[in-house]
Design brief:
With 207 residues, this protein is an alpha+beta fold. 15% of the residues lie in helices and 43% in strands. The protein has a single domain, classed as outer membrane lipoprotein receptor (LolB), chain A (Clam). This is DUF1571 domain-containing protein.
Length: 207
């Protein structure tokens, strides 16, 4: 897997930054991070784990501290434990479209991974412009600030502009802010404590 990541890093040289970031992520077998989201519904804090080919685990810190969600593409369902302790209590099986397991912005668990986010950004790129605003610093780390903005009247899932800060070394997003057609901020997301290729326990994604 390390070899695949190094190949992706080599192939990404000189590419569009979003395509380069997506190539890096597509070379990973998994990652773990803490997601902090600010939007109209307030703050959401989630310990997030992703394992290819699409296993997702969310351990909620806020607003529903202790709740756990696990999605596996082989079942097509989201298992919800409102009070935590997967394996000790029987979870509730819900479809990914169910409002109980969607975020305040309507994001689905099965479409929550970073690869899906960057593919949405690419859709916006096809009907807009990409600006590289250069190097900056975020939480003491070197990052690249990228803006992708749609043509007037265009949007993807209500988003007409993305501001992304990509880690200078890994190209993994550190922060993403989305804006609507009128320039209003829709959501601000910080991705903290990112661990690439972590070791998952056998039952981390066991529904």
């Amino acid at each position: 897997m390390l070899h695949l990541l190094m190949v992706a890093m080599s192939d990404s040289a000189g590419q569009d930054p979003i395509a380069a970031a997506l190539a890096r992520i597509d070379a990973l077998s998994g990652y773990r991070l803490t997601l902090r989201s600010q939007g109209s519904g307030g703050e959401e804090v989630i310990r997030y784990s992703y394992q290819r080919p699409g296993n997702v685990r969310m351990d909620l810190e806020a607003p529903y501290r202790g709740a756990v969600l696990i999605y596996r593409p082989d079942t097509g369902y989201v298992k919800l434990w409102p009070f935590g302790s997967p394996g000790k209590r029987r979870g509730i099986s819900l479809r990914p479209t169910n409002r109980m397991v969607r975020s305040s912005r309507g994001h689905r668990v099965d479409q929550s991974d970073i690869g899906t986010l960057l593919r949405n950004v690419q859709q916006l790129q096809r009907h807009g412009v990409t600006r590289e605003l250069g190097a900056s610093e975020l939480d003491g780390k070197a990052v690249q600030h990228i803006v992708v903005e749609a043509e007037p009247g265009r949007s993807i899932h209500e988003v007409a502009r993305y501001d992304l800060w990509l880690d200078d070394e890994t190209l993994f997003p550190s922060r993403v802010i989305s804006y609507g057609r009128r320039g209003e901020r829709l959501e601000s997301v910080r991705l903290e404590g990112v661990s690439l290729e972590p070791s998952f326990a056998p039952d981390d994604f066991d529904p």
